[in-house]
Amino acid sequence: MKYYLLGIFIFLININLLFSQIISFEKNIGPMVFKHCANCHQNGEIGPFPLLSYEDVVNHSQIIEEVITKKLMPPWPADPTFSHFANENYLTDAEIEAFKTWKEQGYLKGKKIKYKPFAYENDKLNASVLGKPDLILKFPEPIHLAGNNKESFFLIKVPFQLNQDTNVRYIRFVPDKRKLVHHVSSYLLSYKYNDKNDIFAGKKMYNMESDLKDITTGEELNIRNFDGTQLDRELAFGWVPGSNWSILPEGIGGYRLSKQGLFVVNMHYSSTPVDEIDHSEIHIYFSKTKIKRLELSEQHGTIGSHPVKPKLVIPPDSIKTFYVTSKIPHDISILSVNPHMHNLGKKFLAYAVRPNGDTIPIIRINNWDFNYQYTYKFKKVIKLEKGCTIYIEAVYDNTTSNPRNPFNPPRTVSALPLGQIMRTTDEMLNFELRFMKYKIGDENISLE
Ligand code: HEC
Fold first, then answer.
1. More exposed terminus of the chain, fewer Cβ within 10 Å: N or C?
2. 312 CB near ligand 1 (under 6 Å)
C-alpha cells in the first residue's frame, strides 16, 4: 500500500514537471526577443525603446505582453496561415504563452549570474551578414529637411567611378534619420566608357516639388548619353520602415556595375516639426561571381503594366475593393513580392491559379499597415508556368472608422497619373513581382 501511494506521488510530481515547464530568460525569452524584436528595438532603430537586456524586457513586460497577445508586435502584416516567407517574423502561440508563463513564474533569469546585453548596438548583427561593405557611397550633399510639418521629396544623383566593371552581390540602403526616411526607391544607370561627358558634373540634388518640371524625363538630372539617348534604368534598391536584409543565393540576382555609373535615388521623407539633416548612405557588397540568373521585376497596378479595375477612385464614406489580373506569358520562377498601398489600404490578397485550376497562395494581409511594407521573400522559389493567372484584390476604407484616414470628413481619394508626385494622401495599388526566367529545378532552390 505504502509503495503504491509513493508510486502515485512520484507519478504526480512527474506529471507536474511535465506540464509546468520552467521558462528562463537565458534559455527562452532572451533568444526569442533577440531574434524577433532586437533588430528594431535598439538605439538608432525605429522601435521606441531598446529590448537588449534582461532589465529592458522586465521593465516593459506589461506592455510587451499586451502587444504580443494582440499580435501587434513584431509587426508582420502577412497572414502566416496563408503563406510563408523566408524573412517572416511573428511569434507562435507557444512563444506568446511562454512569455506569459515567464512573467507568472517571476522573471527567472536562468543559470548565469551576469547577463550581457545583446551585442546588437551599432548594427552589428546586420553588418555581419555579408561582412563589411566594399564601397560606401554617401549622398553628394546632406539633405536639409525643413521643420515645417510637411512631407518632402528629393531626387538625388549619386555618381560613382570604379577601377573596372564590377559584380555586385547586394546593395543596401542605410538610412540615417530612420524615423524620417519614409520610402526610398532607386534606379541604376550604367554608362559604357566615354558615353557620357562627366557623370559628376551638374546639380545632384533636387527638391522634387520646387526644382523639377517633370520627374519622368529626368531632364534636369543631365543623365543622358552623348548622343542624347537615355539609358535603360535598372531598378536598384528600395527601403521602407522595417526593411531588412533580403539576400538571394550567390549567382541569383545582383548587379553588374559598369566602371562609370550613377544611382538616382528617390527619397520621400516624413514631416518634421524641427529642421533636420539626413546623411543616408548606400552600401555596396562586391561579388566574385558573375550574375548567373537575372532578377527581373514587374509592377502590377498603379505604376505597372496591368491596370487596376475599376479605376482607383475611392469615394468618401465607402469601403471599396479593386482588382488587378494578369496572365503569365512565360514560365517564371518567383523570388519575392512587395504589395503597396497607402493610408486607406485595409486588406491585400494575391494568389495565382494554374492552368489546371490549382490555386497557389501568394500573400494575404488582413490588416494593412502602412508602416510595414516589406519585400516578402519566399522560402523556396515558386514556379508559375505559362498560362497561370495572378489575381490581386485590395480593399480600401475611406470612412471615418479608418483611424489612418488622412481626411476628416473623408474626401475622394485616387491614384494620380504617372509622373506626378504621389503623396501619402493619394492612393496606390501596386504589386511588385521579382522573378527569374524559369529553369528546370528552380522550385528546389531554397531562399532562406
Ligand atoms: C520591424 C520593427 C519592429 C520589430 C521587429 C518589433 N518592433 Fe516593437 N515597435 C516598433 C515600432 C516602430 C514601435 C512604435 C510604433 C508602433 O507601435 O508601431 C514599436 C512599439 C513597441 C512597443 C510599445 C507599444 C506601445 O503601445 O507603447 C512594444 C511593447 C514593443 N514594440 C514590443 C516589441 C516586441 C516584444 C517585439 C518582438 C516580439 C517587437 N516589438 C518587435 C518596431 C518593431
1. N
2. no
From 315, 240, 302, select the one nearest 429 (Cα to Cα): 302
What number does the ligand 1 atom closest to the CA of 60 have? 29
Predicted pLDDT at 247: 85
Q: Which residues does the chain have with pLDDT short of 50?
A: 1, 9-18, 113-115, 117, 119-125
> Tell me, what's the pLDDT at 368?
95
pLDDT recorded at residue 321? 98
Report the pLDDT value the prediction gives residue 185, as an integer from 0 to 100.
86
Point out which residues pair with 255 in neighbouring strands.
168
Is the CB of 63 within 6 Å of ligand 1?
A: yes
* Whether the bond into 74 is cis, omega within 30 of 0: yes
Are the beta carbons of 384 and 436 closer than 8 angstroms? no
Closest of 158, 157, 153, 263 to residue 208, by C-alpha:
153
| Residue 199 grid cell | 557623370
68 CA to centre of ligand 1 in angstroms: 9
Q: Determine the atom of ligand 1 nearest the C-alpha atom of 244.
A: 1
Question: Looking at residue 265, what is its pLDDT?
Answer: 92
The CB-based long-range contact list for 114-121 (8 Å cut-off, 24+ gap) reads 115/25, 115/26, 115/30, 115/53, 115/54, 117/52, 117/53, 117/56, 118/30, 118/34, 118/38, 118/52, 118/53, 120/34, 120/38, 120/39, 120/42, 120/52, 121/42, 121/43, 121/52
Structural domains in the chain, sorted by start? 2-126 (no CATH), 129-286 (2.60.120), 296-444 (2.60.120.230)
